[in-house]
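pasting for the record
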Amino acid sequence: MDKIRAYLDERLGLEGLLEFMSHKKVPIHRHSFWYYWGGITLICFIVQILTGILLLVYYRPGQGAYESVRSITYDINFGWLIRSAHNWSASLFLFSAFTHMFSVYFMKAYRAPRELGWWSGMILLALGMLFGFSGYLLPMDDLAASATKVGMAMLDILPKVGPWAADLMRGGVTVGDPTVQRFFALHVVVLPMIFMPLLGFHLWLVQKHGNAVPPSEYDTPVEERKSVPFFPNFMIKDLAMWLIALNVIAMLASLFPFQLGEQADPLKPAPPGIHPEWYFMSAFQVLKIVGKIIPGTPGEVVGMGGFTLGLILWVLIPLYDGKTESGVKARNAHYFGLLALGVLIITTIWGYAAL
């Protein structure tokens, strides 16, 4: 074992890595629980990769999409379990990513020198939502096709660029087999090619700058702040959280397996109560609310414009509140975060209640 260790250390520098991990510290305080959500997001993404590879063995894009998913769900041994685990881990991935984002925001972990970590994380979240949107269509049942039409209609609202982008993604004027082909390429090739290196960069930034302490710890002198070594103390707890996340995914996939609706038919009307996935429900409901106040296309443009403006302000918050200090800017940023969280939760619940 010593020879193997020496061999690997000479070529990979394992001793340097272990030395770094043993000296890295993780702050301990009453908000330390929120540090685990980045790791939970990562393990959900790993489950996505593994189950996605297994689904690729049997999935056929294009005209055979529906039949291949039907076979996976009802004919292939444990196909239903793999498909359900893939779907549930996708939802948990985005839920944990949103939780991680808000915890980073309220801990002010976007402040210098962590701005690039905030921006890379926001891009990763946007890509994760694109993963969900593109993957939702792939079964090509009536619910998936109708929900994708709703999403494309939201994209169509954007002036000038919107209709062109929607036609490019659909492969025409309506959702059909060409759309499945393009969404499949986006889901399994284009997005992973962008996501993986950006994820590596984001994780490297986290390791470089470490975990930020919340504003409540600013007044505590650095030498008096409590911390534990990342390896093995924090890593063991992080792995325990991974195990809990895996158990949650396994239970949800087993107890609430995903079914398959009827095959999509462009000539049939959309099923009643059609709506986008939960992570798009807030934007969907905002558009409905604004549409009632300002009917027609102007209302849709105003709704999308307001939502886009809020998103831009959210992403650029490090440029406004970028210093480690208390003051008017810090309070305004905190209230803006509370407003964003409240609007997201209320409009999401409102959207489901209105179905």
